[in-house]
Amino acid sequence: MKIVVSIKQVPARDSLLRAGPSGNWIQDADLTWEINEPDAYALEEGLQLKEKHGGEVVVLCAGPARAAQTIREALAKGADRAIHIELEETATLDPLATARLMAKALEPERPDLVLTGLQSDDLGYGQTGVILAELMSLPHATIIMEVEKQDGTIRVKRELENGWFQHIEMPLPALLTIQSGIKKLRYATLMGIKKAKTKELRRVPAADLRVPASRSIEIERLYIPERTKHTQLFDGSPREAAARLVEKLKFEARVL
Amino acid sequence: MSILVFMEQRGGEWNRLSWETLAAAQQFGRELNLPVSAAVLGDGIGALAGELASRNLERVWAVEHELLKDYTPDGYSRVAQQLVVRTSARLAVFPHSYQVRDFLPKLATVMERVAVSDVVGHRVDQGALVLVRQLFQGKMNADIRFAGEPPWFASIQAGAYRADAVEAGSAPVEIFAPQLSALDIRTRPLELFREAQRAVDLSAAETIVSVGRGIKEADNLPIVRELAEALGAELAASRPICDAGWLPMERQVGSSGQTVAPKMYVAVGISGAIQHLVGMKGSKTIVAINKDPEAPIFEVADYGIVGDLFQVVPALVEEIKKARG
Question: With a CB-CB cutoff of 8 Å, which residues 5-24 of chain A face chain B?
Fold first, then answer.
């Protein structure tokens, strides 16, 4: 089974974010970057499916030059090869524009299964996977907890709201967006890191894909949300802060 | 040229978020001076369409087809597209449910558009709609505009608009018979099921201490357990903690777990992604302890301490014990 796992590089989780000079994107010069966490779970699912059924895991990532680091990490965990769609350093694309690049880059691949995380931790549109399925004319399902391969089909467990689930069957090839937390993530081994250096990493400049530039939504302004509630913050040493908080909880909120 | 709201139902029951979405659409309609219609898709949805007829709408679309009985992304996106075209809708508005997340991006792509998903607010600027959504797990907000021609698509996050603001009125019901064949549908949905019954009913708890990623590892959980004991509280968690298996799934608060509204909710090491906030922001008093002063949890907190939970929580336990004598 040929499995493509689409991953994204995003700012590390505890990054302190500021709006950049353009006002519609963050100041991203000094950030550290990591794999989008939901995509790490999609990669894990892909690697486990390959271990069970054989085949190949190809990592696909659209991002600027720095994304190569995240791609190498995926190769070190066990992906066989990678395609890096190289974007301009400052490009902020909407999910349709990104998915168009991905669909074009995947044309020669003809995968049996495409996996990706259910959403990104940066833009968080939660759409790129489904859009990619439509552009590749693949059936899809989102927020998947389990994947079971059958003969020419798959049966997946989809999460619904309020503790409900549903099984869905579909033919291959197909695209799934994977829920976070469904499997334990592996670490790269030293051997894996060594091997990753020799694995194929194909760079495809976005411009070479000749995908029409389009923009149907635009971020006008990015800002730290205004507080809707007046939060009383207590500082000082942990002990002082705790003492003042307890006093408020007892005499003002009357919850102690 | 109007606003078209897609109401969500399953097995004849409304998804409650549909009403918040309808309230949002009516507000857009008033501010943009556009009429609002609502649609319900399914098989045997006459009664639901009838219920919509008593709201302030231009028209109610009852979209009936036997292949719409069970949700499929192929079926729903195909039919929604036909209705958007039929009504020349300028803006199509959806509840940001798991179902909509599954088919709206497909629908928008077919029409060469991008939906603005997960909307939490809006304003009208010189006659144009500007939608607000969260980025970076709630750390940033973004004002977003539609750049191209209509139709435009948007989905509304839970808790952003009030369902009780839906305006009553009366509207004619029109039946729309879509073109749909079994060959159009590639996925086969099977029965819905639930897993083991919930043993813990967090919604009954008066006080909840909830723990998130900030706790770093399972071995550190006794720190928050002590706080829960000192307060006589139930222990709960955000999703990553339950995903990691550190606490059982039944103790998860948020959009994929339980919704709670206790007298006091103490969030320890929880940054406050929207998926968590929707499950707890109705709590009467919210206390947050987090090392990041810009964590979104502080936006809903009444009281907060910015600091290292490993120092703050033990100090707090001691102070609570003192206060309780």
Answer: 11, 13-14, 16-17, 19, 24
What ipTM was estimated for this complex?
A: 0.92
Average the pLDDT over A231-246 and give the result: 94
Secondary structure (DSSP) of B114-133: --EEEEEEEEEETTEEEEEE
- Residue A178 C-beta-side C-alpha neighbours within 13 Å: 26
- Contact assessment for residue B153 and residue B104, using Cβ atoms and an 8 Å cutoff: yes
Exposure string for B152-182, b = 16+ CB within 10 A, e = fewer? bbbbbbbbbbeeeebeeeebeeeebebebee
Nearest CA-CA distance, residue A246 and chain B, Å: 6
E-assigned strands of chain B? 3-7, 9-10, 13-14, 36-42, 59-64, 91-95, 116-125, 128-135, 140-146, 152-156, 173-176, 188-194, 207-211, 234-237, 264-268, 285-290, 303-306
Q: Do B186 and A134 touch (CB under 8 A)?
A: no
pLDDT attached to residue B31: 97
pLDDT in tens, A124-141: 999 999 999 999 999 999
Please report which confidence band the pLDDT of residue A90 belongs to, taking 50, 70 and 90 as the band edges. Answer: low
Which one of A175, A176, A217, A228 would you mutate to disrupt binding with B, by most B Cβ within 10 Å of its Cβ? Answer: A217
Distance in Å from the first CA to the final CA of chain B: 67
How many helices (H) and strands (E) would you count in chain B? Answer: 9, 17
Residue with tokens 């959504």: B133
Residues contacting residue A87 through CB under 8 Å, at least 6 positions apart: A62, A63, A64, A93, A206
Say yes or no: A140 contacts chain B, CB-CB below 8 A. Answer: yes
Yes or no: say if B23 and B161 are a contact pair by the CB < 8 Å rule.
yes
